[in-house]
Inverse folding.
């Protein structure tokens, strides 16, 4: 497929954007860890000490540079080309996390990343071309059609339910909560970014779009959505493995963005069944990759818990049925805890087991 000059500019900017954004995940997480170590309160549980951490701001600036490049790319190339290229940020963040953050990416995680990228490529190959836009008022007509207004209302309701109900209960244990909030708001921000970018491009070409209130409204939507995205993306990065957050965020964000684009811009109108089915198959491949990544995360979490328990509880030198029974009970109890509560359980279990082993003969003699 031959690229026009504008498409080539958009493609290059999208590649640079993916590199900067992928690196920003790593820099920001190192800043979050440093801030949490200094303050004792993590961002995942409501802490904001990272706002005074220079390393976190370095990551934020890196992300802003990437987002600006991405913003400009939407002004030159269609969304179906720019959005899926975010898959490259997965590779960047996963590789850097493996070497810098020591977050090991196992074979299933690598396969999951590959499946996400392959599925996205299938979507791009069969995605429809973007229709020509000549004014911000034309975009406003698309944004105020009934179907898209229903989509916007659904996103707002779901985000409110996730923030005020599910996030307090399951945010620290389910990676999908925080990433879903980011992705839902991201789908609206991309539509507004496309509108704003097109307006600025038309303005620079000589057709002033700044005189229309719709341009400023889209700018307000972009700012609001980005603030919410950054807040919950910080929580996701601080709570879960970077190699897991990045691909899942990409998958959900890309899926919802393409869905929003299909509704708003009627991208599937005029497409044949073959192309539509191919796009759906691409989604299935991407979702399958997400499942593999989730399995990898669960295995890592269980392994880290077992290592933590083994490091705290001394090894048993004399085994009998009663000792194994109590140890299994304590281990199962430890698996259900979270945060400080879990550490208290483990430390208490270790102290009780140590005391039990020391005085086991006396206890058993008294019992019988």
């Amino acid at each position: 497929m031959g690229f026009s000059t504008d498409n080539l500019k958009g493609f290059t900017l999208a590649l640079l954007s993916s590199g900067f954004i992928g690196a920003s995940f790593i820099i920001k997480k190192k800043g979050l860890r440093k801030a949490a170590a200094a303050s004792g309160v993590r961002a995942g549980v409501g802490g904001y000490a990272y706002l005074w951490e220079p390393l976190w701001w370095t990551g934020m600036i890196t992300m802003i540079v990437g987002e600006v490049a991405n913003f400009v790319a939407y002004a030159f190339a269609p969304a179906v080309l720019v959005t899926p290229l975010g898959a490259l940020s997965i590779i960047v963040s996963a590789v850097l996390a493996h070497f810098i953050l020591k977050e090991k990416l196992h074979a299933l995680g690598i396969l999951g990343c590959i499946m996400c990228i392959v599925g996205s490529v299938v979507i791009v190959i069969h995605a429809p071309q973007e229709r020509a836009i000549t004014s911000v008022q034309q975009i406003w007509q698309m944004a105020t059609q009934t179907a898209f207004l229903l989509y916007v209302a659904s996103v707002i309701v779901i985000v409110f339910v996730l923030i005020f109900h599910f996030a307090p209960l399951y945010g620290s244990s389910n990676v999908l909560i925080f990433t879903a909030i980011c992705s839902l708001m991201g789908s609206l921000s991309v539509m507004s970014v496309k509108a704003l970018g097109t307006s600025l491009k038309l303005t620079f070409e000589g057709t002033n779009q700044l005189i229309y209130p719709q341009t400023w409204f889209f700018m307000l939507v972009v700012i609001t959505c980005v603030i919410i995205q950054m807040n919950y993306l910080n929580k996701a990065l601080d709570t879960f493995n970077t190699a897991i957050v990045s691909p899942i965020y990409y998958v959900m964000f890309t899926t919802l963005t393409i869905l929003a684009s299909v509704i708003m811009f009627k991208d599937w109108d005029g497409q044949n069944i073959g192309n539509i089915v191919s796009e759906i198959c691409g989604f299935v491949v991407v979702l399958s990759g997400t499942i593999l990544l989730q399995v990898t995360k669960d295995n890592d979490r269980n392994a880290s818990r077992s290592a933590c328990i083994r490091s705290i509880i001394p090894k048993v030198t004399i085994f009998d049925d009663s000792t194994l029974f109590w140890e299994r009970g304590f281990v199962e109890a430890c698996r259900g805890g979270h945060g400080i509560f879990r550490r208290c359980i483990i430390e208490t279990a270790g102290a009780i087991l140590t005391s039990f082993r020391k005085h086991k003969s006396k206890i058993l003699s008294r019992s019988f």
In short: The longest helix spans residues 273-312. DSSP finds 14 helices and no strands in the chain. The mean pLDDT is 76. The chain has two domains: 5-300, 313-367.
